[in-house]
């Protein structure tokens, strides 16, 4: 079976074309900085070493990115498909749908549930609904399957899920911490289990344009930094992260419109809002190194949030065996890892500076005498989604 996985992030698209079973990858692609009209980046590669890299592109919406990748798959010279009818299934790393957890065929009912939660996850459900519509049009004979991000976090104890709100709001509306990035955190748990036979007590740091931390005990999620929505937790590329809710009525009384406030929190906040430079940490770090004080402040705020959650989860877990960095920033952000770990030495988290700069896949970058093992595990959310999509059977 030829199966395509689509992973739509808040500012990115990732694709992998698999032959299942067997986990064979035929081609993969990545689009960065979706929404840019002059600075987007497109990658395409195959296992035989063939690569395409284009930057300075205009990819204003997810539709353009999807079509660019599919055009590569069908290209007469280097493509791997003769037509799109070869795709039997398309799996999506979907985020949230009302009353739907785990793995579901993307029926009108499930899509309706995603639309009902647009207010909770606008940065993700909007692009996923757009992507699903595109694939429904382009691959009408393929089964479309969603592997929802909330599934991994259903094991979190209720006392760590509940907000300090009237209990009736939880009962009537389901307001609780749901958690996301389940595909990434569960892949980290599976990888640790493969390496050591058990995950032990672990903290997974998925750091990218969207970031979250997850406390994992014996393979199960026991806490996570995201809440009901993806606005909570760490500051994101352009989302605010943890915030006093009374800031909103305060700004309303100051004369700001609600739409203006929400745009500030979801599109103009986070790293972009603090730095004033960019929503991309690479640009911010470059500006900080050039002496931009606000950019340097944004880096410090970002790292401090990571340290705060690691300390909290260390206490909840009652110790720590593994600290894992994954996601685009987690994998490639040597400076971020160094800043974070330097503040955690008292917890037995000791980084080897040389290994931090020069590491391989699934690398251990902790010092030889570090009580806690520090890992860099490249995210492979697409493989997890592919396996779940292949295994899915209609009821």
Describe this protein's structure.
It is a single chain. The chain is α/β, with parallel strands linked by helices and 395 residues long. The strands form 2 sheets. It has an 8-stranded mixed beta sheet with strand order 5-4-3-2-1-6-8-7, with helices on both faces. Strands 11-10-9-12-14-13 form a 6-stranded mixed beta sheet, sandwiched between helices. The longest helix has 25 residues. The mean pLDDT is 94.
Number of strands: 14
Strand order in the largest sheet: 5-4-3-2-1-6-8-7
What fraction, in percent, of the residue positions are helical?
25-40%
Gyration radius, in Å: 21 Å
Beta-strand level of the residues, as a percent range? 15-25%
Structural class: alpha/beta
Which regions contain 5 or more consecutive residues with pLDDT less than 50?
Answer: none
**Terminal residue distance:** 20 Å
What is the count of helical runs?
Answer: 14
Quote the average pLDDT: 94
SSE succession: EEEEEHEEHHEHHEEEHHHHHEHHHEEH
User: What global shape is seen?
Assistant: globular
How would you sum up the major sheet? 8 strands, mixed
Quick take:
This protein is an alpha/beta fold. The protein has 14 helices and 14 strands. A hairpin with a 2-residue loop joins β10 (212-217) and β11 (220-224).
Spell out the key features of this protein.
20% strand; single chain; alpha/beta; 395 residues; 6-stranded mixed sheet; globular; 37% helix
């Amino acid at each position: 079976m030829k199966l395509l996985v689509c992973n739509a992030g808040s500012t990115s698209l990732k694709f992998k074309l698999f032959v299942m079973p067997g986990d064979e990858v035929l081609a993969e692609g990545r689009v960065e900085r979706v929404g840019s009209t002059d600075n987007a980046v497109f990658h395409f590669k195959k296992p035989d070493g063939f690569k395409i890299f284009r930057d300075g592109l205009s990819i204003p919406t997810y539709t353009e990115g999807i079509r660019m990748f599919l055009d590569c798959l069908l290209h007469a010279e280097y493509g791997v498909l003769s037509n799109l009818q070869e795709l039997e299934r398309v799996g999506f790393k979907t985020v949230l749908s009302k009353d739907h957890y785990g793995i579901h065929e993307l029926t009108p009912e499930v899509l309706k549930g995603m639309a009902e939660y647009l207010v909770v996850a606008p940065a993700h459900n909007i692009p996923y609904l757009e992507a699903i519509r595109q694939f429904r049009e382009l691959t009408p004979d393929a089964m479309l399957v969603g592997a929802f991000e909330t599934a991994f976090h259903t094991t979190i104890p209720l006392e760590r899920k509940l907000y300090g709100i009237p209990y009736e709001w939880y009962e009537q509306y389901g307001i609780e911490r749901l958690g996301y990035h389940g595909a990434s955190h569960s892949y980290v748990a599976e990888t640790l289990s493969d390496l050591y036979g058990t995950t032990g007590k672990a903290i997974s740091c998925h750091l990218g344009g969207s970031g979250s931390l997850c406390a994992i005990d014996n393979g199960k999620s026991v806490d996570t930094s995201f809440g009901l929505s993806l606005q909570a937790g760490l500051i994101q590329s352009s989302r605010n992260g943890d915030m006093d809710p009374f800031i909103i009525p305060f700004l309303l009384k100051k004369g700001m419109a609600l739409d203006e406030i929400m745009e500030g929190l979801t599109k103009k906040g986070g790293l972009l809002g603090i730095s004033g430079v960019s929503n991309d940490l690479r640009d911010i770090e470059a500006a900080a190194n050039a002496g931009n004080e606000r950019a340097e402040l944004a880096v410090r705020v970002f790292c401090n949030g990571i340290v705060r959650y690691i300390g909290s989860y260390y206490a909840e877990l009652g110790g720590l065996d593994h600290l894992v960095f994954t996601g685009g920033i987690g994998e490639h952000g040597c400076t971020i890892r160094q800043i974070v770990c330097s503040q955690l030495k008292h917890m037995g988290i000791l980084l080897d500076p040389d290994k931090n700069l020069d590491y391989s896949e699934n690398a251990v970058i902790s010092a030889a005498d570090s009580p806690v093992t520090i890992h860099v595990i490249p995210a492979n959310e697409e493989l997890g989604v592919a396996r779940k999509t292949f295994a899915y059977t209609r009821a």
